[in-house]
Structures are given as C-alpha cells and as structure tokens.
Amino acid sequence: MPLFFLIAGVFHPKKSNFEIVKKRVQQLLVPYFLWSFILFFFWLFLGRKYGESAALDLSPIKNFIGIFYAQGDIDYMNWGIPMWFLPSIFLTFLIFWLIKKFIQNKKNNS
C-alpha cells in the first residue's frame, strides 16, 4: 500500500488547479465508470452463470453497489476486482491536492 501512495505522489503535478482536477476526472473516473458498467452488465447477463461466479451465488444488487464503492472484493466487484485502482488513485490525487491547497492558504494568511 505505501508503494501506491508513493506512485500517486510521483505523478502529482507541480501546480494543480480546478482544471487539472477536471482533467483527472476525465482521465480516471469516466473510464472507470464506463468500464465498470460494461463489465457489470456482461457479468450480470453472462458471467455470473459460469465459472466461479456460478458457485458463489452473488447478489446482483451488491455487485451494482460495488461500482460506487470501488471495493475490490468478490462480494461487491466479482466482475472487476482490479478496477478499484482507478478511483483510489483519483481520491489520493484529490486528497493530496486539498492538503496542498490548505497548506498554501495557511502560508498566504500568515
């Protein structure tokens, strides 16, 4: 997990503003939701009837909710466990951006 945050920090832009946040939404969240819905519907109509998914008897509602939790777990994202990475990298970027903005505002007010 620390390697994840290290990589997120290395690729964080030197200067960030709201435009860069919007760009990251387009780069990370739009593809995540697009592919998540595609994979979920494939799993819903075909994938859950074959292989390991058929033996697990997983809830389609929980798996749909898993798209919004982005939790890489069999119960919530059996169809796309590795997809958790995209929203996590976005949230890491966003938190770092907010912390950086808070520190800069504090410096300017001092």
Helix-strand layout with pairing:
Elements: H1 2-10, H2 18-45, H3 51-56, H4 60-69, H5 74-77, H6 85-109
Distance between the termini: 35 Å
Radius of gyration: 18 Å
Regions with little confidence, pLDDT below 50 for 5+ residues: none
- Count of individual domains: 1
- Count all strands and give the number: 0
Indicate the structural class: mainly alpha
How much helicity do the residues have? over 70%
Q: Report the order of strands and helices.
A: HHHHHH
Q: Which oligomerization state do the chains in this entry correspond to?
A: single chain
Largest sheet: none
Mean pLDDT rating: 85
Tag the structure with descriptive keywords.
75% helix; 110 residues; Acyltransferase 3 domain-containing protein; 6 helices; mainly alpha; Acyl_transf_3_dom; Nod_factor_acetyltransferase; single chain; transmembrane helix
Explain this structure.
- The structure is a single chain.
- By secondary structure, this protein is mainly α.
- It has one domain (19-105).
- It has helices spanning 2-10, 18-45, 51-56, 60-69, 74-77, 85-109.
- It is elongated and about 60 Å long.
